Amino acid sequence: MRFLLNTHFSLAVDSLRQNRGRTFLSALGIAIGVASIVLILSLTGGINQLIGTNSSKDNANLVLVRPSNGHGTADNIIEGLTNTSQYSKSNLTLEDIELIKKVEGVKHASPIAISNSAITIAGKAYQSTNVVATNDDLDDILGFHLKSGQFLDYSLRENVAVLGYNIAEQIFGTTEATARTFTYNNQQFMVVGVLDKINDPINFNGVDFDNSILINVKFASTFESSIQIQQINIRTETTDIVPTVISSINEKLSKAKNGEEGYEIISGTENLHPAGSLLSIISNMLTLVAGISLIVGGVGIMNIMLVSVSERTREIGIRKAVGASSGHILLQFLFESIILSVIGGLMGFILGYIFAFLISLITPFAPHISWQILSVTGIVSLSVGVLFGIYPALKAARKDPISSLKFYR
């Protein structure tokens, strides 16, 4: 049996070598589809790895309180694409933060209130600047590294700001921007610190701190009519008391809001970037689209195999005349189809990672390389080879040996 399989394999390889150009073009159709799938899976895996760092053991004692309308995270994001006010609706208040701080086991609590407004420097306006109103506990929760200066300190001065690394260079032309001033909402602010480069735009806060300006939330509440808090970050004293702290926070907030369910409390692996769920949906949709191109490639293989069967009708007749069974003929042509598809799969695997690596050069995440993706590539390629090769192989196996011997080209 092994000898027969080796023979079928050798005959299939010899046949493909005789038509190298046709073999390459047929495999290329599969390679494009596989490369698309590998590219999507590797980039998605890279993004998920970046997001996953937020739920690592270092953040095991992190608890988040976010506004909630009862819909799923992905639904909220999709609604946000058509309703720009979606994320400005929040029933979280500054009083809630003070309430949470009094809960036993809470070490730090910090709000995230984001606005996208213009700031003015020496009469020049910078539009759509990301301004984050928070407090000094945020530094203790996230562990910022400062390029220069210090973090927010409400006890020293109210109208102070900390700049992200990129925004400091953008508006002041240097990261040495301490003691510089700017105007926001008709209020003058003095820069007291500049964050070191973070290069982590995807995080559980949904804030690109490299391109943000941080101001004190208490001072912001004095000149903004209503502060919309998008999230409250909470760091507990230890990991084991997280469930107890969550229960206490939920009880106090529910009582303060008269049972109104306009928020959600999450922790552990749920502490992901809000776009995580939507990313999975988009990834699945793109993978499905890439799968369609695999079907096209499979049809191409079937077409080439049918042409090959037609061209080698006399060869089939001779093989059957000297004792080859229909099963032997079927296996020979099925092997050719599988080899074509596997070659295309390997080409696609390599091409997919090359493109993923090139894309990673201009993005903050690296492509994810795993044996799982290689396994998916192998299984998909093998399945396409069998699925689209079985009909031409059956057609070859069913040919009448006498009629085949009479065939001339």
Give the topology, please:
Blueprint: H1 2-18, H2 20-52, E1 62-67, H3 73-82, H4 94-101, E2 106-121, E3 124-134, H5 137-142, E4 146-149, E5 160-163, H6 165-172, E6 181-184, E7 187-195, E8 212-216, H7 217-223, E9 231-236, H8 242-256, E10 263-267, H9 276-311, H10 313-321, H11 326-360, H12 371-397, H13 401-405
Parallel strand pairs: 3-8, 5-7
Antiparallel strand pairs: 1-9, 1-10, 2-3, 2-6, 2-9, 4-7, 5-8, 6-7
Helix pairs in contact: 1-11, 2-9, 2-11, 2-12, 3-9, 9-11, 9-12, 11-12
What distinguishing features does this structure have?
10 strands, 13 helices, 17% strand, alpha+beta, 53% helix, 409 residues, six-stranded mixed beta barrel, single chain
Tally of strands: 10
Task: Return the average pLDDT rounded to an integer.
Answer: 82
Outline the biggest β-sheet: 6 strands, mixed, barrel
Low-confidence stretches: 80-88
